[in-house]
Amino acid sequence: MTTLIKLYGAPVSTCTARVMTCLHEKAVDFALVPVDLFSCEHKQPPFLAKNPFGQIPVLEDGDLTLFESRAMTAYVAEKFKEAGTDLIRHHDLKEAALVKVWIEVESQQFHPAIAPIVYEYFVAPIQGKSPDQGVIDANLEKLSKVLDVYEAKLSSAKYLAGDFYSLADLHHLPYTYYFMKTPCASIISERAHVKAWWEDISSRPAFKKVSEGMNFGEK
Amino acid sequence: MATPVKVYGPPLSTAVCRVVACLLEKDVEFQLISLNMAKGDHKKPDFLKIQPFGQVPAFQDEKISLLESRAICRYVCENYPEKGNKGLFGTNPLAKASIDQWLEAEGQSFNPPSSALVFQLALAPRMNIKQDEGVIKQNEEKLAKVLDVYEKRLGESRFLAGDEFSLADLSHLPNAHYLVNATDRGEILTSRDNVGRWWGEISNRDSWKKVVDMQKQQHSP
Lengths: 219, 221
Hints:
The structure holds 2 protein chains of 2 kinds. By secondary structure, chain A is an alpha+beta fold. Helix content of chain A is 52%, strand content 8%. Chain A folds into 2 domains: 5-80, Glutaredoxin; 93-208, Glutathione S-transferase Yfyf (Class Pi), Chain A, domain 2, CATH 1.20.1050.10. Chain A has helices spanning 14-25, 45-48, 69-79, 93-123, 133-154, 167-170, 173-179, 186-189, 192-202, 205-211, and strands at 5-9, 30-34, 58-61, 64-66. In chain A, helix 5 (133-154) crosses helix 9. Chain B is α+β, with helices and mostly antiparallel strands. Chain B is 58% helix and 6% strand. Chain B contains 9 helices and 4 strands, in the order E-H-E-H-E-E-H-H-H-H-H-H-H. In chain B, helix 4 (93-123) packs antiparallel against helix 5 and helix 4 packs parallel to helix 6 (167-182). The longest helix of chain B is centred in the middle third of the chain and has 31 residues, at 93-123. The A-B interface holds A 52-53, 64, 66-68, 70-72, 74-75, 78-79, 93-94, 97-98, 100-101, 103-105, 107-109, 112, 146, 149, 152-153 and B 52-53, 63-64, 66-71, 74-75, 79, 93-94, 96-98, 100-101, 103-105, 107-109, 112, 146, 149, 152-153. Chain A: InterPro entries: Glutathione-S-Trfase_C-like, Glutathione-S-Trfase_C_sf, Glutathione_S-Trfase, Glutathione_S-Trfase_N, GST_C, GST_Phi_C, Thioredoxin-like_sf. Chain A: Belongs to the GST superfamily. Phi family.
């Protein structure tokens, strides 16, 4: 009998949402174990033993404990490669390689530009700070350049790695979801192919299950 | 005999030498096609076809063109499993996942502050760009917190993912090398006992020494 996967995190958390979406796409049962961020549970020794960086999420599968959401999705997508949606294209060497490329593009190009913007609008206010327009503007400029490349790419294929939905597209979901609630959403919606891609990937049932819980900052 | 794979970019680029180090560890024959970035080679249409972000490295083998150094490294490990260091990315899914989480930690936590410091302290002066003391201080603090975690981990484990050198350790080499050898802030690594010990081990690998030689050759007239 296989053990139940445990995911330690919070439904509002972008990185927890990334892993939950992957688990739903693969139709893998899991238990979400809430971590109390406001009492800093993630900075205490029992949690630090699971993730020395003191961040959520953490995934436990039997004896294996993992941190870093993108390592978790890669592990789940590979372990359950014959189940649910084929997220890593393991039957085709070229497609699999292109998925890896666009996973890294999200990680190294998209994420560093979008994350500070989401932070300024959602996290800074709860720390009593106003959004820093300088940070927002600088990162919007970076993100726009990245989205120009995406716009060109998505005009010749439906998804980032080709004409198939993959883990590379999935990884963009959580931060973009929150970004679309900010005043900066137009840089997505004014690019026709990026907009169509966003509407497609964010309406997938696996993500809709997860986005219901992504109500950070809402009263 | 297989055609050598191609790597595009100058050997002084941190991301290029991440890939070169991996190819050397895996004993995969390659051809390094240097680009003159000062002349804007990386922004020319022909190059943008294979690397639409206009950055280095780009990679080509018989089957495919790729970008992003960590994607290239993972591809090399998975597609040449029987060559060179077979365990570089693990020989089973659990080992691979354990290495992958530390490779992600490198990409998400170590790389941003260390890259910023390498730029400010080693590259900006050479490019006649004014250093930003605020950025330097901020990133020193960020990197110090990350290295505190590494210090604890490397007291429990010889390398980041376990007892064997892996792609996770390798991925740190380029930025760490610049910090230690081209800035006056190297002690952020070397003054921590376990991190210092680890740095000494990983930078002494034959594969990394070859990369350093290639970098020195680019400097000579």
